[in-house]
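From the shared-data thread, chain only:
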Amino acid sequence: MPLLIWAGVLVIGAFVAHWGADKLSAPLKKVRRQWGLTAVAGGALVGIAAAGSEIGINTISAYRGVSDIGLGMMLGSNIVSVPLIVTTAYFVSRTESLGAETVRMTIVAVMDPLASLTG
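Structure, as tokens:
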């Protein structure tokens, strides 16, 4: 029974994360346009903002002498992030040879697990 509950929590969490990403993308586009940033610079800005919590946790764990927390945080986030970033960069760099629609659909399938489930 507890496994079924956690599976439900996972599914609900995935839907909430997808909803939150949709709600956050419009204001970020507006800020990017107001500041005159390119899409790459906007992506870097979002990346720095997303890494803020990791930087804070790593700094505090190093200050308190509990370096295992920082190491676990670094390994845990990079094990998932690096393959996704490399895959996305690969497909984006091949836009002309593969066709823009094929690349867009592939990136959505890689970056959004819900897209592959819903069709």
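The chain is about 90% helix and 0% strand.
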